Amino acid sequence: QVQLVESGGGLVQAGGSLRLSCTASGRTFSSNYMGWFRQAPGKEREFVAAYTWNSGRTYYADSVKGRFTISRDNAKNTGYLQMNSLKPDDTAVYYCAADSGITYIAPRSAPGYAYWGQGTQVTVSS
Question: Does the pLDDT at position 27 exceed 80?
Answer without folding.
Answer: no
